[in-house]
Design a protein that fits this description.
about 75% helix, 10 helices, mainly alpha
C-alpha cells in the first residue's frame, strides 16, 4: 500500500493518496509504529505540498509520536521538518524544541541547526541567545573547514549592534570587509 500511495503522490493525485492513507490508518491495529509513521509522513508531505502547514505539522507530529518504532533517519528528518514548519508558522518555541531534540539525537551536527536556532531567537528578540547560537554555528563551520556565509556575519553584526557591543561590531565589520568585499 505504501507503494500505491507513493505513486499517487508522484502523480500529484493528493486526494486519492489521502483517501488511501486514511483507509490504511483506519486499520492501524494491523500496522506497526513504523508503518503508521510512514503513512503520517506521507500525509505531512501532501499537506506541505498543498501549503496547508497546520495539517502538515499535525501529521508530522504523529510521525514522531511513534518514537522507538521509527527508523532513526525518518525521526530525524521529521524533527527537522517540524522545526522549519513551526518557524514558518511563527511558533518559535516549538521550532526551538524540535531543533533541540534534533541536535541532541544527531552526531556531529553541521552549522545549519545552530544558525537556524540563532534566527529563531532573533525573531523572538532574544539577542543574547541568538548570538550564542550563531557563534556556535560559526565555530562548528570553522572546525570543519566549511565556508562561512556572509549572512551569518551580517546577522551576528546586527545582534552585537543591538547589544551595543562596539568591539564585536568593529571586529565583524573587519571580517565582512576582508572576506566579503562587495
Amino acid at each position: 500500500m505504501l507503494a500505491q500511495v507513493t505513486e499517487l503522490i508522484e502523480m500529484k493525485d493528493y486526494a486519492a493518496a489521502l483517501e488511501l492513507i486514511d483507509a490504511q490508518l483506519s486499520q492501524s491495529q494491523r500496522l506497526n509504529g513504523n508503518e503508521i509513521g510512514q503513512y503520517h509522513s506521507m500525509r505531512g508531505f501532501i499537506y506541505f505540498s498543498l501549503e496547508d502547514y497546520p495539517n502538515a505539522i499535525a501529521a508530522y507530529q504523529e510521525v514522531v509520536a511513534q518514537e522507538e518504532e521509527l527508523p532513526v533517519g525518518l525521526e530525524l528528518t521529521t524533527l527537522y521538518t517540524l522545526a522549519q514548519l513551526s518557524f514558518v508558522g511563527e511558533q518559535f518555541q516549538d521550532a526551538l524544541h524540535y531543533m533541540e531534540i534534533w541536535v541532541a539525537k544527531t552526531t556531529n551536527p553541521s552549522p545549519a541547526p545552530y544558525i537556524f536556532m540563532g534566527q529563531v531567537y532573533y525573531q523572538m528578540k532574544d539577542y543574547p541567545s541568538a548570538i550564542g547560537q550563531i557563534e556556535q554555528g560559526i565555530q562548528v563551520a570553522q572546525e570543519r573547514g566549511t565556508p562561512l556565509k556572509e549572512d551569518w556575519w551580517v546577522l551576528l553584526n546586527f545582534l552585537y549592534f543591538e547589544e551595543e557591543n562596539w568591539d564585536r561590531v568593529l571586529a565583524i565589520l573587519e571580517i565582512l570587509v576582508r572576506d566579503f568585499p562587495k
